[in-house]
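Quick question, first post here. What does this chain look like in 3D?
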Amino acid sequence: MADVAASGTGLLDRHVSFVGALRAAGLPVSMAESLDAGRAAVTIDLLDREQLRAAYAACVVKRAAHRPAFDRLFDLWWPPAIGDGQAYDGDGEGEGEELEEVDPADLDVIRSELRDRLRDVLLSGDDEALRRLAREAVNGLGRADGQPGRQSWFTYRVLRALNPETLMASLLEAVLQGQDRGGLGERVARQMLTERIKQFEEMVESEVRRRLAEDRGAEAIAKTAVKPLVEQVEFLRASRDDLAQLRRQVHPIARRLATRLTAKRRLGRRGRLDVRRTVRASLSSGGVPLTTIFKPHKPHKPELVVLCDVSGSVAAFAHFTVLLAFALREQFAKVRVFAFVDTTDEVTDYFDRGGDVVDALARMSSEADVVWYDGHSDYGHSFEVFAQKWPDAVTPKTSLLVLGDARTNYRAPALPALRSMVRQARHAFWLNPEPRQYWSSGDSAAATYAEVMPMVECRNVAQLQEFVEGLLPV
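> Answer (accepted):
Ran it through. Tokens below.
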């Protein structure tokens, strides 16, 4: 921090580079916000790192989901220490230097001493002491020889050597001090100690990233150190943790989608001419219709039909489509949800208001009749079955939403059935989770279906939000 603050030019360059890294990571930082952050940086005490972090976060972070990415990048561009950390300790007695001078044959001694100190620090709950210990552990155990003139740093070497999880038994014994085991006290203590161990592991990871950034540059490390924001995670590659975060993102989007699909047509302030009331009013003026009376607009009662591909090729996207259908079910007065693989079945009853999406997924897997022949996607047969079994599902009041990758396994696309549904619907849209450049490759019939109804690339939440925002004017 001190070397950055010493030069105004260096501070400005670091600021510009940091803002660029935030934008590259997906955080929407405008020019005005960048200027505000720059003004804040020269107003506060630059030697107070947490004050600088708070000032930047107040200016550039708009959503809580963006804070982890911001913190990780902040630690790379505004590190808490330089080198082995002596400058940060401030007393000139950097313990990391002592560890460097120890002969490699004495690593067992170092490991034993660090484990004993880790146990004491975990019991004390001193965050600053835990951070210093993480730095010493990385300096002493995380270093490995790499290319000539370059050192490598590894988190797993430190955690494997210290193995903090194995300290849990002695930690619990020290915390409980003779109390009965297996009760509430032990559960609370175990949770507290687990959180502290996780905090130590995160500090070790952060220290390793800092050392790598010093050797290779913060820009190079940022490319792999920062996970994609939840709105940028592709549905087809989403992990279980990603899907859990997506669930929190889907509900507000579903509300905006419902607002867009139910927006009134802008036909003017008044409805059709009310001839009967206009003639009656003209009697007072000798039959001259001086005053015209119009009928009020009839409120539009929205209906929604959702067709979801739940085949294995789009398993993660199928999970997302279920989340979206579940959220839409809570926003519309009437929603009908249909799932298909190579045939179609209605699953509306699985999405009861206030129900659980996990239960809906379990019921769909065990009860829904979505496999007819071999369990491979067959959009054409699924559309034909839908048109035959539920001919009245799509009406002029209905918005039709198809969710799937349009890969038909080279089977007939059944365009007449789809055209009939699109003609009957008030709105019709197809959300495709595959990149647009793949729509005409292999067994994809996306380009063919796109000629029948509007098809939108929807690979992540950001694209879904863009689709919803541009759907209809408010």
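The beta strands are 143-145, 151-153, 303-309, 334-340, 344-346, 398-403, 427-432, 455-457.
The mean pLDDT is 80.
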